[in-house]
Protein 1
Amino acid sequence: MKNKKDIKKISVFGPGVVGMPMAAGLAESCLKGEFAPGAFVQVIQRDSRRSGWKVPEINSGKSPIGGIEPGLEEAIARSVTGGTLKASHDYLEAIDSDLIIVAVQTDKKGLGPDYGPLMNVMEQVAEVVGKSATTPVVISESTLAPSTINTVLRPFFQEKGLKEGRDLFLGISPNRVMPGLLMDRVRHSDKLIGCLNEEAGFLVRDIYQTMSSGDLHTVNSFTAECVKTAENCYRDVMIAFAAELARYCDRKNYNFLELRKQLNDSIGHADAVGEQRNAVPQGAILLPTTGVGGHCLPKDGILLSWRYTESSGKKAGIILKSREINDQSPQYLYDMAAAKSGGRISGKAAVLGASYLFNSDDTRNSPSLALAAILRENGLEFLVHDPYVRPEDFYLELLGLTDYLTDNLEETLRGAEVVFIGTGHGIYYDIADQLPDCVQLVVDGTHIIDRGDWDYSRHKLVGIGHGTGKVPDDFVQFAHQAYDFVQWGFAQELKDICEFYDRTYLKDEPNYGRLDYRKVRELVNTCPAGRFVADADAIPAGIPQHPDSGEFELLKIAADYHSAQM
């Protein structure tokens, strides 16, 4: 096995929000002399109508990632100038690479993965490996369903005459990046490296260590696949739990944000939400917004439970119910606006933000676009404003919303009676000063509006969790107990899934190859966005009680698990 000083060429397939910061970070390591003399990073991007422009953009020293990304364009410019970063449409430029990083999107289809784009790239990688004089490590930075490296990719390459351990080494190092913090996460976050061959994992760790100060955990591929999908799935579940609390508070006119603060303080996991706008929620109780978008959370619970559901016939109830709850959020926001408008919205509307995350151009699974689609379904006239999203954006086109997008805020607001703040871009912080008199109602799905400074005599304002009443002490106590109980319910599902995978796929593997729920839980809790997965073996003494406990779907599922244990 090589060491890092033998590394001459690293290729990265897919210069998106995962691949581009990885390529930039490794290219800077080349500049610093961390690898063999003359080492460089080769970026591969197919010459498609929507993304082909990225190659000349990178080669001119510019970032192909929109939005605000501190440090990314500077790293690209330095590396291109220094000759350690190149981009090409020709995938055969990756021949003779020592490390091949695949960073293309994976998705879900029904209750399983959609690997179409991934396997298209793997076809190219197989040809590259077959023509190479090197024996590369092929690492997926994409999120994969547990078992994929073993049961999908290894057989795929085997059918091409390429044997794991002889012609290539396979592994996964699933990304933990976040738009707006891409370079920060690459440089400082803990990271998982899971290879079929343990020595290959050590090599990748040494390579990545040249650009990262985080702890790099070398594990088997099954563990890496499980940890990555579980940590995103956990966040999806906890957003759904927070959404259930917020919707209950809305029905009762309770102040959800005050409840959230009380719970986070008492649980001991507070965050900066409420003190600074667009702070990433990292407390115990998360923050429901327009919905849950991006390339990870909406699909990773499906990926985590894929083989479990497929083979055992069981369904991960809390995981799947959380998806339902979070998918309802754009409709919930629309219904809130309709109720405040006398039962239906009749005039022109405006949607502020098309991306799923503030100060980003990423529209994948954007709840703002889902909200826009609901407006269209209801026959409303509207525009969608976003300063970062390109008019040729794929997801706008996919949803048939291209013609609704503009970067002209004045045009978007002109004549609008209802304004939805779907994405918390910084330019909307002072939106009150820019609203024309025709606006009757503002619907804040982002929590960026300071209600204390709002002039309600000029424009009505509603939003998720905007109740004003004091939360009764008995409900605060119940909500705390329900949080602990749903936490345990999720941990129980995760344990069941891990034990299924281990006995079904790994029972004959040596220790390195086994899957241990306790190890998965430990590593999930290293996630930089904050994860607090409970101990599934610490069974709660009883089910939380409250007159309205039947209104909480996740609690009911956890209660069923508890009854089965007693």
Note: The mean pLDDT is 94.
Protein 2
Amino acid sequence: MCQTMFPAGIIFIVLVEFCERLCYYTFAGTQKTWLQDRGYSNSQSSSINLIWAEVCYVCCFVGGWLASTRVGIFRTIAILSLAYAIGTYLSAVAALPNVNSVPFYLVGTFGLVALGSGGIKPNVCTMGANQFDPADPDAEEKRASFFLYFYLTINVGSAISHAFLSSWATSGVPSIGVEIEYGYFFAWMVAASFMFLAFLVFVAGYRSYRKLPPAADEEPVVRLFVQALKQGSSFASGKLAILGWALIPLFILVSIVNAFAESPTLKIVSAVVAVVCIGSLVIAHLNNKAFLPKGDVSDCLDCVPLLLVGNLFFGILQSTIASVFQSQACQMDTRRDGSDFSYEGFQYSGDFFRLANPVTIVIGTPLLDRVIYPFIRQVIGKEVSIGCKVVSGFSFAICAQIVAASIEYARKGAAVLPVPSHCAPKVDGEHVHMSDINSFYMVAPYAMVGIGEIMVNPVLQHLAYEGAPSSMKSLLQAFNLFAMGALPNGVASIISQALKQQVPNDLNKGDLPLVYFINSGIGLLGIVSFFAVFYLSPERFRHGRTEKGVCTLESDSETEVSSEEG
């Protein structure tokens, strides 16, 4: 096994991702509570928060496309990092008590922040992976390790956000003179400053980056995809593929409108469009050779069914950490001092307990990469397959839903304290009161989802990188991020609105465990669907062979371990 050594330019790229994720998760963890304080309901604030994440990931297409044009990957990241920082500063100003403007806030978050996040997300990981010289015989193994540690870095940034910024937003920082009404402004200004630092750090590292030949960034890849689909449009599978791609913009639009309008008709339309869109893309691209000529585009699109199914179902389970887990934690005892029954006393935000998620990932990533996976490899004589990793990840996330349901039954049976929760929704002008059960119990389901993330997300991200020719890597990463973030968040938003009767502003009047059991069923369906797609995918995804640099996901060689170690 090779000793992983990362090129010098990696440190600048990873620092950018660290700052960006800190900023992103600060909004993801505080946006719901800020909107609740301005009159939005529990379910609608969750839905809008999920839709904001969807818009961020949709903008990955913009970033991936720009990087594949003459703008190039470096300038794309630099320009949109600056836009990101400006949008964050604007949102912070909107939270000032004398401004208090939801429209102004939405311009910053749904406009510049989302665009900036999309510009950075698909390109930073691609640029980092590009730093490894393909001539190095261990390049593929080093890249696989890089994606694991890249994912670890994401969670270091999010850990700081959950540990400090989210609670500062809801309770202020009295120790340094930040009163509760200025909490959101202060937290978002800190996040904005980190994002501006990301821009400066990235530009400062320019000379240390490994540059690809200009053609790699200037290939008109979108045109290649469109031309290939047009050529295959005379076949039934080709028509189905075009239908699926054409429905993506409609699904995005309808899901965004549904989050704000809360229309029963739009819920049904959104659900139908989602099912037809996803089904068409999966069915069509399971057999690309039936309507596409063999080549780079066909190889790239071979990854689509696995990326869609794996990301969609796991993403729905994962979305609970930004919605119902947070709602549940906020109606538990979040006081730092259990003897303080005053409203002004410091309370942890419900998002604080999401800290367990990135901490688990930070600890678990090197443990899996350096200890558990090598041990299994030594025992069975081959690499742990993608199927095993993904199913294990799904299983942990499903168990997290069941554990959260058990905690909710205990919470509903506990006494209600005479203390309003800073991060709970308002009923009759006052925050819902917390229940007499320790909110730290929510650490368990957050951590279990984190274990699942380690086993699923880096694997699919690696697949998206290795599954595309060099000129198409940023675009396929953009699609993977759409499948990882936009699509499941859009679907989860629809589910959130459909089940709003079970998640009212006061959870004592709802049935939150039912939501968790429904999510568990969706997760089980995801396992079955992933295996079906996995075994219907091209054979190279199931066996230890590399074709034209396209990734391999499972080794069936009994002698591979001994030959490498010898």
Note: Residues 214-219, 544-566 have pLDDT under 50 and may be disordered.
